[in-house]
Design brief:
Layout (H helix, E strand, L loop, with lengths): L3 H6 L1 H10 L6 H38 L2 H37 L19 E6 L22 E2 H8 L5 E2 L1 H20 L4 E2 L5 E2 L1 H6 L11 E2 L5 E2 L4 H5 L6 E3 L5 E10 L18 E11 L4 H19 L3 E5 L11 E9 L4 E10 L3 H6 L2 E3 L7 E2 L1 E9 H12 L6 E2 L13 E2 L7
Parallel strand pairs: 4-9, 8-14
Antiparallel strand pairs: 1-11, 2-3, 5-7, 6-7, 9-10, 10-16, 11-12, 12-13, 13-16, 14-15, 17-18
Helix pairs in contact: 3-4, 6-11
């Protein structure tokens, strides 16, 4: 959510930020609505003052026995009461219209975000690991001989429809091991607090984390009105909604392993093979709540947490800074980490690490109390995948595939797999 006072003070800067995202100027329409709202509030307050004044005179007229004046003033009070109520209702409607307008406008990009139209304009900032050289043609994850029996798309489609998968046996265990490895690393070494949050949330939580009102079609809603979380960023970030926390309690760093659900509206025909883009998937999420001056350094710290997971797994990756045209709605700056997938001979996104500044905090009224006793200020919120478990499974399987259809597994997973280090061509752990 944008600060209306900042738009009033610097409308040109606000429009310039929108232009960087490829959007038309909006300050004129916003300020026109804001002016009408403020004028209506002022008129309602003036009418309220007149009502209060007349109310005091009613008693005086009654005490003097001036019946005519008493009746005139009583009628005036009634008229003013109706007038005030009507004006307040109009002001409330204008306020709701302004709030809705502001809620649909994307966050302003940070100054160092590159200008661009789409993913082709993203800036590569890092590349790690050597692309594996195979003496055979590598295949996609679902085509690997040892994987195929345990990755069942047909049965999942029978149960739920397209874009679901049923994992079983050794592949299901590897998937679980990856999530446990990520969680243990984030908790034991990166200092994050593990949380097991609800995956059903209300409108307020979705709105506060900028998933509503603009992107409701991208998520699933139950008949009772609850939402299945598109990411555990929603419940983790919303833990501070409406709070004024002590400065000394910041930063707050959380991690959670949850199911995530996305309708993938508008993505028909994209990445439909295998389990790259699913309606239901698992993710280990990271969320930080920080002081404003610490959010940029916190984003770099979170990025390293995510990159380190891939390095420990031995998965080649590259990190890119997203351009203005490819950045998410609520993000001020986003780094994507893309893992190498040999079956497609390319890098594919496996994590996004974003800072939203105070964009989400304003929507959910999350603030901190400065230790020097100043007035409460909005916190900054950040989120990042640490990592997407299913996509990490794809990268592990494809990079470790062998000519005979087996898969060499990362050594760091052995403690979670009973000491096993190989998925055999027969689909067993050995």
């Amino acid at each position: 959510m944008h600060d209306i006072r900042a738009i009033r003070d610097t409308p040109e800067a606000f429009d310039a930020a929108l232009a960087r995202r490829g959007d038309a100027p909006m300050s004129g329409a916003i300020l026109k609505l804001d002016t009408a709202r403020r004028e209506k509030i002022g008129a309602a307050e003036a009418a309220q003052a007149e009502q209060n004044k007349a109310s005091k005179l009613v008693g005086a007229a009654k005490a003097k026995g001036d019946e005519a004046e008493f009746e005139r003033l009583r009628a005036l009070v009634g008229e003013k009461k109706e007038e005030v109520a009507a004006m307040q209702a109009e002001a409330k409607a204008l306020d709701a219209e302004l709030t809705d307008m502001l809620a649909r406008i994307p966050n302003s990009p940070a100054e160092d975000v590159p200008q661009g139209a789409d993913e082709n304009d993203n800036a590569e900032v890092k590349k790690w690991g050597d692309i594996p050289a195979f003496d055979f043609k590598p295949v996609e994850h679902f085509e690997i001989k040892g994987v195929a029996p345990s990755m069942d798309f047909e049965t999942a489609a029978k149960i739920s429809g397209s874009r679901f998968v049923l994992l079983s046996g050794a592949v299901a265990r590897i998937h679980r091991a990856l999530a446990q490895f990520m969680l243990d690393t984030h908790v034991d070494e990166n200092g994050l607090i593990e949380v097991n949050p609800p995956v059903l949330v209300g409108d307020d939580a979705m709105y506060g984390t900028d998933k509503l009102p603009k992107f409701g079609e991208d998520s699933y809603q139950t008949s009772e009105g609850m939402w299945l979380v598109p990411t555990s960023e929603v419940p983790l970030t919303y833990t501070v909604a409406g709070d004024v926390v002590e400065e000394a309690s910041l930063p707050r760093r959380y991690t959670a392993h949850t199911l995530c659900f996305r309708s993938e509206a508008g993505s028909a025909g994209r990445d439909t093979s295998g389990m790259l883009r699913q309606h239901q998937f698992e993710k280990v999420e990271m969320v930080s709540v920080t002081m404003p001056e610490e959010s940029d350094s916190e984003q770099k710290r979170m990025l390293r947490c995510a990159e380190d997971i891939l390095e420990r797994l031995g998965i080649p990756y590259r990190t890119v800074l997203l351009c203005t045209g490819d950045m998410g709605f609520g993000a001020r700056r986003t780094f994507d980490i893309e893992a190498w997938v040999p079956g497609q001979n390319t890098y594919r996104e496996i994590s996004s690490v974003s800072t939203t500044g105070d964009f989400q905090a304003r929507r959910m009224n999350a603030r901190f109390k400065p230790k020097d006793g100043g007035k409460p200020q909005f916190v900054h919120t950040l989120n990042g995948s640490g990592l997407a478990v299913g996509r990490c499974l794809i990268a592990v399987l494809e990079n470790g595939q062998q000519a005979d259809g087996s898969v060499a597994l990362p050594a760091v997973l052995a403690p979670y797999l009973g000491g096993k280090t190989t998925l055999t061509a027969e689909g067993k752990l050995a």
